[in-house]
Design the sequence.
């Protein structure tokens, strides 16, 4: 009889890669974000993983506005520094200084320039 092994491989026993969602306030539009991804304005020169377009105020979001990371069960957002940084990243109304990493959790309000999203954990 063929042997039946129940060997567990780390790649298959792990839960799916963590993701969070950004839901545009008042619209139901939802964007999925994974660890290491950059969110920014949709533009031919943007290399952001999530590119925002067709949203009122999206033209004020930088092409590479912020980056998300998941470590040890916690999500973080980093406001990406720009030479002429003018449009802030806010968490619950508190400014995230450019280059600074801040923890975010489910239910937080994340504002990029003037566009506000509710953070969800997928």
Sequence:
């Amino acid at each position: 009889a063929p042997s039946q092994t129940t060997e567990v491989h780390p790649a298959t026993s792990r839960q799916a890669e963590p993701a969070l969602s950004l839901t545009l306030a008042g619209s139901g539009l939802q964007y999925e974000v994974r660890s290491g991804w950059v969110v920014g304005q949709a533009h031919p020169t943007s290399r952001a993983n999530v590119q925002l377009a067709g949203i009122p105020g999206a033209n004020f979001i930088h092409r590479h506005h912020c980056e998300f990371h998941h470590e040890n069960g916690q999500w973080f957002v980093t406001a990406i520094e720009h030479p002429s940084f003018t449009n802030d990243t806010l968490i619950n109304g508190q400014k995230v200084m450019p280059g600074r990493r801040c923890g975010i959790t489910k239910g937080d309000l994340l504002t990029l320039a003037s566009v506000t999203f509710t953070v969800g954990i997928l």
Observations:
- The chain has a mean pLDDT of 88.
